[in-house]
Amino acid sequence: MKRLIVLIIITFTCVSLFAQDNIRELSILHWNDFHARNVPYQISKKKDGQTTTYFVGGTGSVLGYLNKFRDSNSLVLNGGDDYQGSPISSITNGFSQIELLKMYNLDAFVVGNHEFDYGAAVLDSGLKTANFDVLSANLYLPKEQRTFGKSYVIKEKNGIKIGIIGVSPEDLKSLTLPKNVASLVVLNTDSVITANLKVLKKEKCNLIVLLSHNGADKDTVYAKKFHDIDIIVGGHSHTPIYKPKVVDGIIIVQAGSYGKFLGKLDLKVDIEKDTVVSYFGKLNETVLDSAIFDKTAGDKVNEMLASIEPEMKKVIGKLDIDWKKGNCGQWNADALRTMFKTDIAFMNAGSIRKDMLKGNITVGDIWEINPFGNNIMTFTVKGSTVKKMMANNIRMSAKDEELSGYDMIIESGMKIIVNSSLLSDQSDSFIKSIEINGKPLEMDKDYSIVTNSYTAAQAKKYFGDFGEEIKAVDTNVIDRDALLEAVKQQKVINNVFENRLIDEKTK
Predict the structure, then answer these.
(1) Whether 418 contacts 430, CB under 8 Å
(2) What is the tens place of the pLDDT at every residue in 418-464?
(3) What CATH number belongs to 21-304?
(4) 3-state secondary structure 248-278
(5) Model's pTM, two decimal places?
(6) Which spans in 23-102 are helix H?
(7) How far is CA 394 from the centre of its chain?
(8) Which is nearest to 83 in space by CA: 182, 189, 211, 180?
(9) Cα 379 to the chain's mean position, in Å?
């Protein structure tokens, strides 16, 4: 009997060891939408009536936490949009970010839309100096007959063969100035994913990862369509997915934005069955900690900033109220309307890239709040066209979550009253009234409008087909420069958010 028990124990041990040999551990470390937040920044949290403030992010902290968690079983992925968001990125045309990304020992980086803010040629030049794999399977350069980045890469970690497909935004053409991406063709992303999945399956990858800069909602769609994908690591929508989302058995993760979090997804993979056996994921807040902070990275950032720091630290005004996207965007629009003496101002909320706590306003703050450097444009349309533009925008916003939230249009000089229960594609009767600077809109009157060059170029994205071609005049003034001057003139700012679009929905 004893011998039988020993035999059973030996057999069970051998089976366990054999099974364990097929189960391999992997850790995916990921972040996205860093937007050149190279310096730690302050955030505040309220709990039990108490407000605490502390610093998070910055290149030194993100790299420090990465090094804390990294081991030989780690796969390091970046979900794109590392460019644009701070003065150093704009001044160097993004080359600062390539230099800093080289420090991370990345396995793969997917190209986001803001990487194109300085033009495709500039981006291509910078990426040629990278020491990491750059992915963009669905962006094609016809003249050079190649995709902008690699379609996929294969990495091996802890005996796991991992195929990684990278896809840039499907709607890239509407996310940046047309001239910046004129040389590119956006391929059908579904077809691209299908083709590359076939290749990676033929290569007998144990795990397939989609590195996507298309947003959390689109990643859910991909998960429902492509069951051969195992993991989707996302970006673009700035969504902090605190606990991995599982859709049709596919694990989806995304780490918010601005380096506030470093995502860590721990996996156990059966390399015989090519399946994920178990997983655990979380977002790790990159709280500034001298014991974790990577001093070499911090020193490199400081070296980059040294030449521009004195100018960026100049105090030009005072903020007596916290700025969030709403009231900050309204102040921006109001300032442009006042400066250029127009009836109306339109501003896309997506151009506002930073909240700000009350206190001194520096030159650097305005650069970070509005980093794109778009030119100010003016144009004139009839009152009937203004009504059509706003009717289309309201309809589109009702259908498009982005246009009703993250990248909605901010108006200045207007008050609109609607009844959303009457919302219709056939009629504008849901608009009950429009006032321009306190006076009723006149259908035959000419109204002057100021906006930025991005919104003017992407007018159809925000206002649909309103039956009139915009003949915008370039003022040759950069929006950021105009806003810097507005702060200097106003000196103290305390604007509260105003509800300029009022819904009188009947019960």
Answers:
(1) yes
(2) 998 888 888 888 999 999 999 999 999 999 999 999 999 899 999 98
(3) 3.60.21.10
(4) CCEEEECECCCCCEEEEEEEEEECCCCEEEE
(5) 0.76
(6) 59-69, 87-91, 95-101
(7) 23
(8) 180
(9) 29
Tokens of 443: 């259908």
- In angstroms, the CA 132 to CA 180 distance is 24
Instruction: Tell me if domain 21-304 and domain 313-503 are identical in fold.
Output: no
* Amino acid occupying residue 17: L
pLDDT in tens, 395-410: 988 887 766 666 789 9
Token digits of residue 426: 């056939």
Encoded tokens for 37 = 């937040």
- How many secondary structure helices (H) and strands (E) does the chain include? 15, 29
For the segment 202-233, what is each residue's pLDDT rounded down to a tens digit?
999 999 999 999 999 999 999 999 999 999 99
Is beta strand 414-418 parallel, antiparallel or unpaired with respect to 375-382?
A: unpaired
Say if residues 462 and 178 touch (Cβ distance below 8 Å).
no
CB 101 within 8 A of CB 132: yes
Residue 90 CA: distances (Å) to CA of 119, 121, 180:
12, 15, 15
Neighbours of 416 (CB within 10 A): 20
Pick the CATH number of 313-503 from 3.30.40.10, 3.40.50.300, 3.90.780.10, 3.30.70.920: 3.90.780.10
The residues, ordered by sequence, that sit 6+ positions from 402 with a Cβ below 8 Å of its Cβ are none
CB count within 10 Å of CB 67 equals 14
According to DSSP, the residues that pair with 379 across neighbouring strands are 449
Note whether 38 and 22 are within 8 A (CB). Answer: no
Q: Which two tokens stand for residue 340?
A: 């250029």
Instruction: Give yes or no for residue 252 having a pLDDT over 60.
Output: yes
Domain ranges of the chain: 21-304, 313-503
Whole-angstrom distance, CA of residue 407 vs CA of residue 255: 20
Q: Which residues of 155-187 are buried (b: 16+ CB within 10 A; e: fewer)?
A: bebbebbbbbbbbbbbebbebbbeebbebbebb
Q: What is the DSSP string of 305-354?
A: HHTTHHHHT-EEEEESS-B-HHHHHHHHHHHHHHHHT-SEEEEEGGG---
